[in-house]
Amino acid sequence: MTVFVVSLFLPYTIDFEAKAIKHGRKASGSQSPPQVEGRLPESRRHRRPKSLAMTPGATTDHEKIFKPFYAAQYAAELPCADDPNGPGPNEPRSVSWGLSRKFNQPKSKAALHPEPSILSRPDPGDGLGTKPFVDGIAEAHDSEEEHGSPRVLLSDEDWVVKAAEHGNGGLRNAINAASDAGILPDKTWVGTLGMPTDSLKEHTRKSIAEKLQDEFESLTVFVNDSEFEGHYSHFSRTVLWPAFHYQVQESPRHKEYDDHSWRQYVRVNEAFADTIAARWKPGDSIWVHDYHLLLLPEMLRKRLPEAEIGFYMHAAFPSSEIFRCLAARRALLGGLLGADLIGFQTDEYCHHFLQTCSRLLSLEVSAEGIQYKNRFICVKKFPIGIDPKSLDEARQSPEVKEWVSKIRERYEGKHLIVARDRLDAPGGIKQKLLAYEIFLKRYPKWRENVVLIQVASSQSELPELEAQVSKIAMRVNSVYSTLTHQPLVLLKQDISFSQFLALMTVAEVFMVTSLREGMNLTGHDYLQCQDGKFAPERYGSLILSEFTGSASIFSGHDLLVNPWDYQQCAEAIDFALEMSPEQKQKNWEFLINKMAPHNAVSWCESYLKTLSDARSAQLARELNLVSSLSTEMLKETYTRASRRLVILEDECILASNAIKRTATALDALLHDPKNVVYVTSNKTPEQLESVLTEMPVGAGLIAENGCFLRETGKSEWERLLTIDSTKDWMEGIRKVMQYFQERTDGSRIEERHCSLTFWYKDARDPEVAARRASELADQINGSRGSEPIRAVLTKGAVTVEPTQVTKATAAERVLERASQKPDFVFVVGGARGDEVLFNWANRLGQEGKVQDVVTVTVGTHPTEAKAALTGNTTITDALASLKLTNGDSAE
């Protein structure tokens, strides 16, 4: 069985051999074999790129310690893909598409794209048209002066596969660790090369694809440059990423931009679906990753109905109020719901997703998942982690040890604080520097012996933010620097993984203060680096934003902060520095123990097992895969039983076209002394008694989905819930329902003894009513607190019912009180409330408590029942087929 690991970027890319630098229209050596036009990477340019900058106005040697890295970085290439000395195991890789810093690659041939903002659109009459886009930045000129990227001729035949610098490093690390552990013996990566490919000839594409598949377990998805640029640089980066991280657009976009980027997003997802569908075989599993491919699960479900499909979101998932602002919200949710299992990093993100599906799609949701188009999609959290083994191996390299020595020597006697974040709005660098400024102002004793090294990885796509960060850094250093000390080192360029490991090893404090982020594994890396191997009996402190996914793992940590509360962050820095060695060790042990269960291998193993279980459960519930009831088998098991329990849903017997024949068959069952018969219903006791007037007397009754029980041979009803247990919550829920009922014409409220129902099936405006019903269900489920209730959203109604009792709990009460235990249990139903009853009965058989169990559904939705009434067989036929122990026919 192959597991297709699907992400936008492959772990590999291609580096081409440069033949000649192109000057104007001609180039020396242009008579070489097949060539394509490309750009030299920064490692081969003669001048340092503009993005390489350190703290403005920096003059001290403390900051210059990192300069040797830059010289090395731009003089050496990334090792080959199969080189063990490639990028570090947990090093984040997120580099702009088409702008590789280390490889010779083709120039993008993407067509012109509309500007993202109305405010920056050119005058239609100026003759300029729209500007091309590269990673969200308008490109006005294609010149070496503007980009510092000389154009070259690249060989179309001489190329090598190398480890990619872009993509999700945490995912790759987890998959590699799982493969080494034997959890993924047969895997195939699926993704793009992360570079422009329009210039490549067909035979070159074919050769690249074959080599990657044969030698690197990778399936390459080729899309044209315009589609990829629209998908990634436009829709993914400027629409989805900000929304998922609670960033409101400051500049308004326009319809032309949104429509164009959305079409490209769809096409790239379709290209992935076509590539996978062409290689998938029965038994294979498909694991889709991250927000770039939200539409892919549904596309695959349409092409491969029987496939096992999982999706995992590595980013945060916003609240429904944010997600509803997306124009393509329904399509995006529908795309995700093609999966069998949807995984998120925290319970909070799971809740947001379930809430969004309830409110925007009016779907029936529960804590376990979503009911959608006769399918149940499991939704669960799977916190991703690091691979300590590979991280420890990387820490033993000579480069890391050398950098540890250099940094310690440079910052001897200083309290070193380290942080590494993306230079974008969610990264929170601006807020962190403001908090650090307050810290220096409020706690003067630290001013001359504390240093914050802030690494701002990735070039900023927000020039205004970059300018603000630079201004704050200049102000801090101008106020608090001395001739021998600089309190802030701002590196607006990523550093090598060896340097980062060394910094984490030496740092006394590590700050992760993102405004909104997924798991953020850098904090995990830091804790692992503080295990005492390089500095015995010294443990560092982690200051962590409560808005990161890791905060859910480290709940109870003393240094969880609100990054918007600058005062709190400043106090946290002081607290971290003031702690005694014993307290620091205690805090570290607390965090490392919390982190230990959530490593890369356990994450992968847990997800794949849950995916397999979810798919198996889905197949078991699909009605078209449930076997038809065999009346011969039913008759055989019924006849050999010495004691029987028969449970029938009221709608099954009352909906029969041959009501008199059904009553006759039921009467025959009741007169057999071996039988105990019960009728279940969601109706009140009074309602149930009134509708059964045409049925024979003698059956036990279960009303209001298990809230009331009337045993066989008795006339009194037993309430299985006390009045007090329902009185408190019903009063409050009634007021909430009345609020929605007053604002929804045609709706009504039905009150029963133990439940309340908001009926909106007859509302004058069905669309508005459905939206309000979703809001009602979500509001009740989200605010119920410790109340043992749940709101169930179905077509036309929202029912709030208790969770302490079900039809199964009432049936279990019947079984416990039986003088003789049955060896045959027969359950027939079709309502949602019968599913828990089917599950209960099936477990009796699986656990050996009852010899023969038959569960039958007459419904049309996915079911726990083991058989279904199909074709011309009716419940009357099933009952009439049973032979009585006295030899007479039930007919």
How does this model look, in words?
- The protein is α/β, with parallel strands linked by helices and 891 residues long.
- Among the domains are: 399-598, 3-Layer(aba) Sandwich (Rossmann fold), CATH 3.40.50; 622-720 and 805-880, HAD superfamily/HAD-like (Rossmann fold, 3-Layer(aba) Sandwich); 723-802, Hypothetical Protein Ta0175, Chain: A, domain 2 (Alpha-Beta Complex).
- The protein contains 30 helices and 34 strands.
- The strands form six sheets. Strands 9-8-1-10-11-12-15-14-13 form a nine-stranded mixed β-sheet. It has a nine-stranded mixed β-sheet with strand order 22-34-33-32-23-24-25-26-27, with helices on both faces. A six-stranded parallel β-sheet has the order 18-17-16-19-20-21, sandwiched between helices.
- Helix 7 (255-279) crosses helix 8 (296-303) and helix 28 packs across helix 29.
- The radius of gyration is 33 Å and the shape is elongated.
- The chain starts with a strand and ends in an 11-residue tail after the last helix.
- The model is unreliable at 25-30, 45-53, 68-97, 121-148 and 884-891 (pLDDT under 50).
